[in-house]
Design a protein that fits this description.
By secondary structure, this protein is α+β, with helices and mostly antiparallel strands. Helix content is 40%, strand content 23%. Strand 1 and strand 2 form a beta hairpin.
């Protein structure tokens, strides 16, 4: 398998699938479109996470999703309210993707 060619012209967004915890010990895979950040912007984002509301933090990193509902702040609030582990799962995935961290097999 050929490796991807590195380019310094970074795209504004990237997609990644997040396993959202649902009641009953299962997960539902949802593809999100994330906003790309450079190192300085990411550092500032992480430093501000402690005082941020979940929805505001998610709106800082999300650009869209593959759900039937329209992507907007109100719908993100519904997601966070109905699936309590969603915010953590989304943030963890974003941090892993943006920093290049990968889970070991």
């Amino acid at each position: 398998m050929a490796k991807a060619k590195l380019s310094l012209a970074v795209v504004a967004t990237f997609a990644a699938t997040v396993a959202i915890p649902v009641p009953g010990g299962k997960t539902a895979d949802v593809e999100f479109t994330f906003k790309w950040m450079n190192r300085d912007d990411f550092k500032e984002f992480v430093e501000n996470l402690a005082g941020a509301e979940d929805v505001d933090a998610l709106m800082d990193i999300l650009a869209g999703w593959d759900l039937d509902e329209t992507f907007n702040k109100d719908q993100v609030e519904k997601l966070v309210q109905r699936y309590m582990g969603a915010a953590r799962a989304i943030l963890d995935k974003y941090i892993a993707e943006i920093t290049g961290a990968r889970a070991k097999n």
